[in-house]
Amino acid sequence: MTERLYYTDAYLAEFESEVTACTPAADRFEVSLAGTAFYPTGGGQPNDLGTLGGRAVLDVIDREDAGVTHVVDGPLDPGARVIGVVDWTRRFDHMQQHTGQHLLSAAFESVAQAQTSSFHLGAISSTIDLNRVLSPIDIAAAEGEANRVVWLDREVSVCFASAGEGAALSLRKEPARTGTLRLIEVADFDRSACGGTHVARTGAVGIIAITGWEKFKGGTRVEFLCGGRALGRIREWRDVFSATSRVLSVLPAGLAPAIERLQADNKALSKAARELQAQLAVHKAAELVSAGVPAADGRIVVVQVFEGWDASGLNAVASAAAASPGVCAAVFSSPTPALVVVARSRDASVNASAVVKALLGRFGGKGGGKPELAQGGGLAGDLTEMVAAARELLGA
């Protein structure tokens, strides 16, 4: 059994303890200590990192026998006293997020009668799953209530109680474990059983920002950021909004309508380009057929590269060329990774699908089709080599 120093002092970032066991595990070592300030993965919260006796702590595991295993990158001598140093930046970030979750979960229960069924503290953001579908008004109200308690800077305290004592204390959520309970209490707001690390006062959470939500398993999944993570996201959004505003010459408030106008313009331009390509394809096909290379069996082989053409345009020109009798055509886009469309007239014996398959086998990419028309995309390499390969496959 390992004494968990973080239970009573989450701010303990450096400690000394005795190594009670060290076992090799592949290229790593599993170390047990008499006491530890390293938090093991559990309760939705990731493990701490840091160093132990100068060795890097790669993982911290909660064992079923109430012990804690530290996975390190080198051996430590049993019986030796070692210094453990917790990665404080990571620890404090987890403390902000986990305390913020308690406040947010309590707020959702208070203002929207929605209970938290699960919590996940991720590397970028955190989520809580609530047991009912919530409206934007509910979500905004809970966010506001949680931040109100943050800014009141209320005390966050830790105490221990038996299961019976816990049942009499009106916990927010019935604990999943029995025996002695570790209770986290936010003064006059929330009390719940939890083994995680938390800040000492709500003000240290800084701010709780809900960044998104979605319906999930009959309820609502809410994504949120606290403290330093929220500040980082605001900086990211600020930079994106500022850059986009400069490019579009509008204020941030005008970004949405400006982007909608650009999308509409782009859609119209794409449609016009497709129509022009379709008209041009007929003329290009006639030019290609007239300049095609005669094969030994009398067929005309057409192979050409078109710069900037999309799959629709290539399809149109290849199909138009293959409308002439005795024609086999392969057309590529430029630059690479390239698109390719292979088509043949009804009286030609070449299998377009087999030609495309052979090109993909040599130059990579994906595609397929039928004997008379096939296409592929993602071909990488030298276009000159692709053209030569297509000519050879078509029998030119």
CATH topology label of the largest domain: Threonyl-tRNA Synthetase, Chain A, domain 2
Mean pLDDT: 93
- Amino- and carboxy-terminal Cα gap: 79 Å
**Order of the strands making up the biggest sheet:** 2-3-7-6-5-8
Shape: elongated
How does the helix and strand content classify structurally? alpha+beta
Explained architecture:
By secondary structure, the protein is of the alpha+beta class. The chain folds into 3 domains: 84 residues, Elongation Factor Tu (Ef-tu), domain 3 (Beta Barrel); 145 residues, Threonyl-tRNA Synthetase, Chain A, domain 2 (2-Layer Sandwich), CATH 3.30.980; 116 residues, Roll (Diaminopimelate Epimerase, Chain A, domain 1), CATH 3.10.310.40. Helices cover 35% and strands 31% of the residues. The chain has 8 helices and 21 strands. Strands 2-3-7-6-5-8 form a 6-stranded antiparallel β-barrel. A 6-stranded mixed sheet has the order 16-17-18-19-21-20, with helices on both faces. Strands 9-10-15-14 form a 4-stranded antiparallel sheet. The longest helix is centred in the last third of the chain and has 36 residues. The protein is elongated, with a radius of gyration of 33 Å. It starts with a strand and ends with a helix. The mean pLDDT is 93.
